Amino acid sequence: MSKLIFVTGNANKLKEVKAILSAGSTPIDIDSESLDSKYALFRRDLPFRYVSRILVDEVQGSTQEVAKAKCRRAAELLKGPCITEDTALCFEALGGLPGPYIKHFLEKLGHEGINNMLVGFESKKAWALCTFAYCAGPGEEPILFEGRTDGAIVPARGPAKFGWDPVFEPAGTGLTYAEMPAEQKNLLSHRYKALEKLRVYIQSL
Ligand SMILES: O=P(O)(O)OP(=O)(O)OP(=O)(O)OC[C@H]1O[C@@H](n2cnc3c(O)ncnc32)[C@H](O)[C@@H]1O
Ligand SMILES: [Mg+2]
C-alpha cells in the first residue's frame, strides 16, 4: 500500500493520526503532501462532515454500525480503499450514551452542559472509544479497530482546542486530555490504542 487515505472532516483528528502513526518502533510513513491534498480535495468536492452527519443521523445504531456505514460510504465516494474514524464518548451512568452521538450533544450543550447531564448521578465515570474502519473498496466489508480509554467527566480544565478534551480526565493521570502535552495524550488515548491495532494490520497487508 503506497498511500494511506484517511477521510475525515476533523483537522484535529488528522493531526493526531499523523503524529501517532509516524512515531513508535514501526513507524508508518505518511506522504503528508498527498494526504493533505487528498484531504483538501475531498473536503472541497464532497464535504465529508456533511456526509458523515447524514450517516450518523440515519444510522441509529451502535458505534460499530455507525463506523462501518461511514467507511462503506467513503469507499464508494472515493472509489477505492480508505480509512475512517469515529469517536464516541460514553457515560457509565447513562448506559454508554451519548456514545457515537457525542458530537451533537457537545455542539448543543457545550462543556458545562456535558457536566450537567451527570448531575444527580453518583458515577461520573466515562470512556472514550475510538473506532477506525478500513474498507478495501466499494462493496467491501469494513474491518474495525477499536481503542478504549477509561476516565471521568470533570468540569472543564485546559485549553479548549479539541472537542471534549477539557472535560475528560483519563483514570490515574490527574490531568484532562486538554491539560496534557500532545505527546502524553498520544501515548494513552483511545485513538492511540486503536491506531496501534490498525498499524499492525496495515503492515500485514
Ligand atoms: O469527519 P469525521 O471524522 O466524522 O469527524 P467528526 O468531527 O464528525 O468526528 P466524529 O463523528 O467521530 O464525532 C466525534 C466528536 O467527538 C470529538 N472528538 C473526537 N475525538 C476527540 C478527542 O480525541 N478529544 C476530544 N474530542 C474529540 C469530535 O470533535 C466530535 O465532536
Ligand atoms: Mg463525524
TrEMBL record:
SUPFAM superfamilies referenced in this protein's UniProt entry, alphabetically: ITPase-like
Coiled coil residues, start to end: none
An annotated GO BP: nucleotide metabolic process
GO cellular component terms listed in the entry, alphabetical order: cytoplasm; nucleus
Keywords assigned: Cytoplasm, Hydrolase, Magnesium, Manganese, Metal-binding, Nucleotide metabolism, Nucleotide-binding, Nucleus
Binding site for Mg(2+): 58, 86
Entry's localization field: Cytoplasm; Nucleus
Enzyme Commission designation: 3.6.1.66
Co-factor binding comment: Binds 1 divalent metal cation per subunit; can use either Mg(2+) or Mn(2+).
Gene3D superfamilies to which the protein is assigned, alphabetical: 3.90.950.10
Single GO term (MF): nucleotide binding
Cofactor: Mg(2+); Mn(2+)
Quaternary structure (record): Homodimer.
Family the UniProt entry places it in: Belongs to the HAM1 NTPase family.
Reported function: Pyrophosphatase that hydrolyzes non-canonical purine nucleotides such as inosine triphosphate (ITP), deoxyinosine triphosphate (dITP) or xanthosine 5'-triphosphate (XTP) to their respective monophosphate derivatives. The enzyme does not distinguish between the deoxy- and ribose forms. Probably excludes non-canonical purines from RNA and DNA precursor pools, thus preventing their incorporation into RNA and DNA and avoiding chromosomal lesions.
The name this protein goes by in its record: Inosine triphosphate pyrophosphatase
Source species: Gymnopus androsaceus JB14
